[in-house]
Amino acid sequence: MKVLMFGWEFPPHVAGGLATACYGLTKGLAKHNVDMIFVVPKAYGDEDQQNARVVGAEDVAFEGSTSELEELWKHLVYFEANSCLLPYLTPEEFETVTERTVRNGAITHTSHFARRFKFAGGYGKNLMNEVAQYALLAHTIARQNEFDVIHAHDWLTYLAGISAKKASGKPLVIHVHATEFDRSGENVNQVVYDIERRGMEEANLIITVSNLTRNIVISRYGIAPEKVITVHNAVDFNTSNPDDVKRGTDEKIVTFLGRVTYQKGPEYFVEAANKVLKRCSNVRFVMAGSGDMLNRMIRRVAKLGIADRFHFTGFLHGADVPHMFALSDVYVMPSVSEPFGISPLEAMRAHVPTIISKQSGVAEVLRHAIKVDFWDVDAMADAIYGILQYPALTKMFIRLGDREVESLKWDNAALKVKQVYEKATAGSNR
């Protein structure tokens, strides 16, 4: 089976858990005889291509006419013609397309062109424009390659998936790693929500990373339940944990690792840390990550008077992540809304007792992690204190956690994804 897969990032260029999940999934699928073309907006040339051929969209030219562009765009989005999602071509081509679309869509003249787009990579200020350009190039990429099914990861690539489906007639599977409700609560970005919903409507089948996310897709986006299939994420067992980590302190270390944003619940970690430090002083807390709430968390730590017990590392790259786990005595993921959450699996694999919020998808598959409501900082603090103070409890969670996480391999998740592909292709051939 051949798959055309659209992502937004791929290791070693990682901005979050999406790249980690995509990498693990491609390695698992390769073991089940699935050939993949993995497309990203910008390829750097150092990506691991052992399991998938990585293609940078900016290395592909969109070839076509203004009339083809208009026809394609009508099938992709239904926003206003002057929306920021309309990709910039050249001044003349942009004016031709927008003016004709605003008038009545009538084609008065057609010009042919080949156009390459530059992508910044990551999640910059021109993100929406890059999402649109990516969709245009997906149309060309789909025409140039042979494959059986299209797989689009997260909202950034849904328009690309739709474009590839239109170009090829092949079935589209989208993978929901998070929704706008996870990222923004009830203050959703309407443009992002509309893209998500459009992707779900156009997809032949939808993969969600948890039943929690599946319920959101069904209830908040109006998608038929039979179209939505849960495949839980997993952990990569091919990477090794560091053996000789020097801590430099005899004090215990409690770690938060993730984006410092509303979704991840960093403020609850800070409040729980303050409560723990009132009961024991031989502990340090680490917030590893970056995000829009970082400065607010630094100010709160200072106001609580615990800055001498609290450390902010910034975003951790590559080997620094397992290194941080190796230094940790407790890992805490207090997410307000977490579609899945791979980091607890990585922590447990590194033999670190783990505390997770009940509002996370990973809570569906873990029995030997302590689960608390994200807002219950008293319960969170009690759990941290208990693990720190009772060695027998620590040993139990390490032993049982090792056994449990052993079964959560990408090979198993990939087999379920392949079965979704087979169902999608069988349905499209009827």
Number-wise, the strands total 15
Chain-averaged pLDDT: 87
Structural class: alpha/beta
Instruction: Tell me what portion of residues adopts beta-strand conformation.
Output: 15-25%
CATH class of the largest domain: Alpha Beta
Give unreliable regions as ranges.
78-109
Tally of domains: 2
Radius of gyration: 23 Å
Distance between the termini: 18 Å
Shape category? elongated
Strand order within the widest beta sheet: 3-2-1-6-7-8-9
The CATH superfamily of the largest domain is identified as: Glycogen Phosphorylase B
Q: Secondary-structure element order, as H and E? A: EHEEEHHEHEHEHHEHEEHEHEHEHEEHHH
In the CATH scheme, what's the topology name of the largest domain? Rossmann fold
| CATH architectural arrangement of the largest domain | 3-Layer(aba) Sandwich
Number of helices: 15
The major sheet is characterized as:
7 strands, parallel
Give the helix proportion (percent range). 40-55%
